[in-house]
Structures are given as structure tokens and as C-alpha cells.
Amino acid sequence: MKFLLLSAFLAAGYACKLDGVTRANEETWVARKMFTMRCVINKDSSWKTEVVGCASPTGAEVPIGGQVIEEGIVYSCNRGEDGRINYRKAMHPTTFCEGHQLGDTWIHNKNFNRSCSERGLFVVNCLTDSGAFIPLNGQVTEGPVLFKCTEESNGTVLLHRGRALEKVNLQKLALSKLKENIPLEPQMPFVEPTTVALPTLLPEVTTAAVVELASTEAATQVPVETTTAIEVTESTTALETSSFVEEATTVSVESTTETEVQPGEVPTLAAPAEPLPPIAIDPVQPPTVGVSLNKPEGPKPPGIRPPAVMARPEPPVEEDNTIQQVVPASDVISEAVFPQETVEPVTSQPIHIVHPPAIRPPPGFSHSGMSCLDEGVVRQPEDTWVVEGKFRKTCTEQGAVRVLECLIDDQTPMPVNTDRMVGQRLHRCWRQGDQVFYEARDLPKRRRHF
């Protein structure tokens, strides 16, 4: 009886201590609003934390191997082959694909070819008014109209319509421009864009590892999350009334007036604003008209002062009643891999440290309550901390972990992409792609020759 009471007393004295919080045996809690954790105390007094499930943003339990649908978003929780728990977030096709199923392709608003996939709704290509194929970032001329289909970096697809350049008689164009005192410049087609923003949703995968410790003083960390980039991009306009607004297409064609000149007739030129100065003509060399040919022999004709250019009256401003509507983009969720960081001790040998790539969510992301999970510790936005004494990290408002600078020691920070000499030791800190590198090496001493 005394032995049982003593065992119960000792068991009650042990608990899971994590991030300053003491958890009792079999106690469960939700970490980072995604994973359901449980404290387990072994018979040998050691303890561990394990993932027993997932949780939706509203707190609904998502068991391992199951899924929950909330507001058109499918939240699933599965165990991978390596034992990690995968938390996945994806769009429900019937909700975000206008009732279409996965793999369906259809024409939307006559000029856009859409498709439905697990990553969401996206545009495959554009179409002309007659149904001709226009590849993304390509253009097609159909009659007098030039169609151009472009895709922006944020997933927005733009369909431009404009007047195609025609072959115009240069002489007639020059005479027409000369009458109006307009410089002869190449005329560009007038383009009126039609904008459509389409959602591009990538499934979110968050993994957690379960580690068992044999020591009572050691602490099992919160699951190490490999991907944390979640972005929600929204664009709204005054005309927006629903989640998906029909795209407005406009066509604007410039009209060009050309004056026919009959043989033998001389076009009537507009009188200049001020009298022209007298033109000196060389009796030997006749004056040149149009393009001047530079001949090496003979005297060059004197310079002719050009007449004053009459200001072209501004055309009346017509009120543009064209309605352009922008479709807001849906959730954009990126997936990445966050490898483990390896750090070697500082010795006289060169040190080469590679920091894992920063988790960067797509631009424009904003989500309240977002936090970062780095090395088992939950960080809040704008928090800074030091890892292995060599990297100073921060947590962004988007839930991304980013390296701010390297550290030579506790008192000597070193910005990224800089080199610094401390004694005979060269320290280097640079960023290459999404990785941060730190290197320290001893430079060879110069020998003096006598």
C-alpha cells in the first residue's frame, strides 16, 4: 500500500514542461491552431509530447485519417510514411469551381478558357471574339483588332484589345500630318485592357515530428513544421458585389482620317502662325526636300529655319462609361520544404554554415493571429531570437521565419551580404537564393623574407 502511494506521489510530481507551461499526464491542447498535442509520462519518469490529431481554424477536431469541410475549405489530417502528421488545406471543387468537378474545362465570359483542379480555378488560355486560341502571354490579330493575353505574377489574367497596325501610304500620312503640323512619329495601337483576376490555390501541408526523450530533464519540442506559408490575396473595387464578378470586356478602335490627293493637285497647307524667314538658296546646289542626302562633293545647303509648329488642339475628353470589374483572387497557399539546420563549432578550421531557406508566403498576404513555429518554439510576429549563436531570426506578420543577420559573437552582428575581418579571421555572411550562408576562416600569415 505504501509503495502504491509513493508511486502515485512520484507520478504526480512529473509533468511535461514545454515553453514555460506545465502539462499533466494525458493532457491535450492545440498547438499553433493546427495540431492536437498530448502529454505522455512513461513508467521510467521520462515524458514526451505526441500529435494525436489536427484542428480546424474554428477549433473542430480533425482526426488522423479524416477531414472536415468548413466554408468550402477541406481540412485533412494524415500520417505520412515517415511518421509525420500532415495537415492539408485545399479548396472544395464544387464551391470554388462554379459547380464544376475536378478536371472540367469550360469557356467563361466568351474570352476565357477556365479549368478546375485541386489547386483551384485558373485560366488555361484566352479566346478571341470568334473563339480563336490565344496562349497566355501571346497575341493574335483578327481583322483590325489586336488581342493580347497576358498573365501577371499574382495570377491575374489581362485581355487587351486594340487597333492593329495597318500598312498606310507614307506619302498620304506625311501630307495629312503636315497639314496639322504634327511631328511624324510612329502611331501605337490604342489598347483598352479587360482585367480578370482568377484564384490560384495550392494545398497547404504542415508536418509535425514525434520525438521521445529518455531523460526527465529533457523537453520534447512542439512539432517542427516544414511549411508555414499561407497567403490570402484579396482585391476589391467599388463595383464588386460578390466573390466572383463577371469580367467586363471593351473594344476601342481609333479612326484615322486620310485625305486623297489627286494627280496634279497641290495640297493646301495650313498657314504658319508667323511669317517664314527668307530662305537662302545656293544657285549651284538646289534646295533639298524631304530627306537630305549628304554628298561629299559640292557645298552644303545652308540650314533652313523650321517654321513655328502650331499647337494641336486637344480633343474633347469623352466620358468613359466602360465598366471594368476585377475578380478577387482566392486563397493562395504555397508549399515548401524546411530542412534541418547544421552548425559546426567555431575552430581554427573554416566554418561553413548553411541556413535553411526562409519560408516566404506570396506577396499581399494578411492573416490575423498568425505566428511562427521554429525549432519547436511558437513565435509571435516581430519577435527576434538567436539560433546556434550565429543567426538572428524574426517572425513576420505573414507567419514566415526570416534571417535578419549573422552573428560573429554576442556583441558583433554582421549584416547579410557582407564580409568582415576580425584579427586574422575572415567572416562572411551572404544570401544565395532563399538560403543564408555563414563562413569563418583563418587567413594564412604572410612570411617576411630578409
UniProtKB/TrEMBL annotation:
Pfam families: Fn1_2
Keywords assigned: Signal
Ranges where the Abnormal cell migration protein 18-like fibronectin type I domain occurs: 15-83
Residues in the signal sequence: 1-15
Superkingdom as given in the UniProt entry: Eukaryota
Listed PROSITE patterns: PROKAR_LIPOPROTEIN
PANTHER family, sorted: IG-LIKE DOMAIN-CONTAINING PROTEIN, PROTEIN CBG04538-RELATED
Listed name of the protein: Abnormal cell migration protein 18-like fibronectin type I domain-containing protein
Native organism: Mesorhabditis spiculigera
